[in-house]
Amino acid sequence: MELIERAIEFENRKMRSLSTSDRVKLSREAKALILDLNEIYKIKKDEKIMDIMKRLTVIKRKIERRLKGKLL
């Protein structure tokens, strides 16, 4: 599936030295991937898809935490 491949590619991307606009774009991309994967998960109930969504959510939270300026 192309969507799962995109999600894994996003997960393996280097996330260093990003500008604020790059972080915003990555956060939006992560959100879109999570929502798309959720639609597939609703139909198939595959645990692998849920695991990918959880990992993407962790990455998204880290990006958003940095955007908001919180240390923890």
Structure in words:
- This protein starts with a helix and ends with a helix.
- By secondary structure, the chain is mainly alpha-helical.
- α1 packs antiparallel against α2 and α2 (20-44) runs antiparallel to α3 (47-68).
- It has helices at 2-12, 20-44, 47-68.
- The chain has one domain (1-6, 20-68).
- The mean pLDDT is 90.
- The chain is elongated, with a radius of gyration of 13 Å.
- It has three helices and no strands.
Helices and strands, in order, run as HHH
Q: How far is it from the N-terminal to the C-terminal residue, by CA? A: 35 Å
Low-confidence residue ranges: none
Q: What is the radius of gyration?
A: 13 Å
Q: List how many beta strands DSSP finds.
A: 0
Mean pLDDT: 90
What key attributes describe this structure?
72 residues; mainly alpha; 3 helices; elongated
What is the fold's blueprint, element by element?
Elements: H1 2-12, H2 20-44, H3 47-68
Helix pairs in contact: 1-2, 1-3, 2-3
What's this, in brief?
The chain has one domain.
